[in-house]
Amino acid sequence: MGGRDATMVLLDENGIRCDGRKVDEPRRIMIRAGGLKNADGSAYIEFGDNKILVGVFGPRDVHPKHMSDTDTGILRVRYHMEPFSVGERKNPAPSRREIEISKVIKEALEPAVMLDKFPRTAVDVFIEVLQADGGTRCAALTAASVALADAGIPMRDMVAAIAAGKVADTVILDVNNEEDQAGQADMPIGYMPSLKKITLLQLDGVLTPEEYKKCVDVGVKGCELVYELQKKALHDKYFGKGDD
Ligand code: ADP
Questions:
Q1: What is the pLDDT of residues 32-44, one digit of tens each?
Q2: Nearest ligand 1 atom to alpha carbon 91
Q3: pTM for the full model?
Q4: Which of the listed residues 50, 81, 180 should we mutate to test ligand 1's pocket, taking the one with most ligand atoms within 8 A of CB?
Q5: What is the CATH number of domain 3-239?
Q6: Residue 73: CB partners within 8 Å, gap ≥ 6?
């Protein structure tokens, strides 16, 4: 939050946002399942100007061994932003923000994956942010779910994710970078649509109880939209494009 550009109009008198979208309109989303031949599963997502590649490896042996669990497989997630992914070069060393996002994505995926049949193993999820424009954790979580499914990892459901938020006292869907910087609130949501369960919910900013409920509603509806695109990406890979 904070208002980098005080003159920017986040919502004009016709209800149009700074990038031309309506309040409930997501950015353009393109998801592709597969693509990395050396990974067990992979996915690529473009979510507005975010471009993110995910590779999944495993279930495989855990090194060092003492990190393994004799009762279940474990999930490990590394979210990494390329130095060239943002306007000003990012230090390639893992930042506190990347460590936090790796942790929240891991915790958001854990309710979906069923690793109890793979004791002593690990499933590794590598997330490479090639271009960032606000909402990378949601885009990455969405693509990671598709990559896990592509790897054949047994899952209860896929996690679809998108952020709701507030600009100019109005609840909006899919917060972009400018809205994240200059807006009033940003609420990333991860949701398992078939199970109707939220697995990620964060909030940066201040909302009234009514706005909070509205953001959750708008975000969950957005996740349902994203879910259809995740399923389509897998369908296109395994059954061919345009084949319903
Ligand atoms: P998210 O990407 O999930 O929205 P944040 O709210 O932390 O996560 O970041 C918002 C946006 O800020 C990112 O998507 C990215 O465009 C930008 N950003 C993050 N880190 C940096 C950085 N080190 N330098 C420049 N821009 C950054």
A1: 999 999 999 999 9
A2: 23
A3: 0.96
A4: 180
A5: 3.30.230.70
A6: 58, 59, 115, 116, 117, 118, 119, 120, 121, 122, 123
